[in-house]
Design a protein that fits this description.
Shape: globular
Radius of gyration: 23 Å
Number of helices: 14
Order of helices and strands: HHHHHHHEEHHHHHHH
Strand order of the largest sheet: 1-2
Oligomer: single chain
Number of strands: 2
Length: 362
């Protein structure tokens, strides 16, 4: 009896018990994404067939346009940059439990800050002007998000409400700048005059060239991943989002970290605006935000808090977005169908979480 009670439990062979659990975790991570994408395309295909179009031709256009030509690939990479940066603008504050719905406004204000320097200092050489434009964009976005952070930390104003309101104010700001401050009378729609040549991001490769903002974004991906996973501040931010009360008990300054998350997210969105000015448009114009807020939120939610997953999911969304136009031309399916498919993928992912929780209980 004594031996039975005191004998230590037999230890499993080293590593034998871990491998199945890691494999199971990997399957739980990957399978829901695969199933959600397949189901979203099945439902989308049924809808396309219901309106009398060929779903196979539509999906072929959507999925191959980005890879058939160099132009499609470059366009996809250029689309990937703002989608990813707006996703970071949503995901970084979300790590602290806060919702930044103002990435659209922060992008526009960042573009305004960048284009202002690009026009006012247009005679400066690239080595001076281009960094100033990018930094001005990031700082402008940070300041814009900082308004919501200040209201949240000092007066407990809900950050969702304040960031949404700031979006609408930014629309008026871009309209005023494009129509009254530096208007381009020959553009046919509200737009500023072009920035100086020194404010433009250099192109890489043969025509059509890829702007250097893509490489800058890759560097930023690494920096954000290291910051969130390897620094004490990044750990504290994730701890605040995971369990606010536990973080408070352990002395973490939750309010300050939440505000900092909003500001950093705003800086990233502002940088996206400056890159759009310096790399794509060469000016600021109405409509340049192009659904980036919605796409950023979709990508941020799909990533489920993983900063490493964000770039890959954003690339998949960029492929769908670039293929949408081709789908409309070749299969006469409205481009909005792609947004429906993206929303369906997110919906099925969320449903998979419910199914996973029920399966684990049983």
């Amino acid at each position: 009896m004594s031996d039975t009670l005191t004998a230590p439990p037999s230890a499993p062979p080293d590593g034998a018990s871990r491998r199945p659990s890691r494999l199971a975790e990997a399957l739980w991570l990957v399978v829901p994404y695969v199933v959600s994408v397949v189901l979203a395309f099945v439902v989308g295909g049924l809808v396309i067939a219901a309106i009398g179009r060929d779903p196979f031709a539509a999906f072929e256009s959507v999925l191959t346009t980005s890879f058939n030509t160099r132009f499609g690939t470059i366009e996809t990479l250029h689309k990937w940059v703002p989608v990813l940066l707006c996703a970071y603008a949503f995901a970084i504050p979300l790590a602290t439990g806060k919702f930044n719905i103002g990435a659209e406004g922060q992008l526009l204000v960042g573009a305004t800050g960048g284009v202002a320097l690009g026009i006012l200092w247009s005679d400066l050489p690239m080595v001076v002007l281009l960094p100033c434009v990018l930094v001005a964009g990031a700082l402008s976005g940070a300041v814009w998000a900082g308004i919501a952070a200040f209201l949240m930390t000092k007066f407990q104003v809900n950050e969702i409400l304040s960031t949404v309101v700031l979006n609408f104010i930014s629309f008026q700001l871009i309209d005023y700048v494009a129509s009254h401050v530096w208007p381009d009378r020959g553009a046919g729609h509200p737009a500023t005059t072009p920035v100086g040549d020194g404010a433009l991001l250099p192109g890489i490769g043969q025509a059509p060239p890829m702007h250097a903002g893509v490489l800058l974004t890759v560097v930023l991906v690494v920096v954000i991943a290291v910051f969130m996973r390897r620094t004490s501040t990044g750990f504290e931010m994730r701890a605040v989002g995971a369990n606010l009360r536990a973080a408070q008990v352990h002395g973490i300054r939750t309010s300050r970290l939440a505000g900092a998350g909003l500001v950093v997210g705003g800086a990233v969105a502002g940088l996206a605006g400056a890159i759009e000015v310096a790399g794509v448009h060469g000016k600021m114009l109405e409509g340049m935000q192009s659904n980036f807020l919605i796409l950023g939120i979709i990508v941020g939610l799909m990533a489920r808090g993983s900063m490493l997953a964000l770039p890959f999911i954003a690339f998949g969304i960029a492929v769908l977005e670039v293929g949408a136009g081709s789908m409309q031309r070749t299969a006469q399916v409205p481009v909005e169908m792609v947004l429906i498919i993206e929303a369906l993928i997110l919906l099925f992912l969320l449903l998979s979480d419910i199914a996973r929780a029920k399966l684990r209980r049983h």
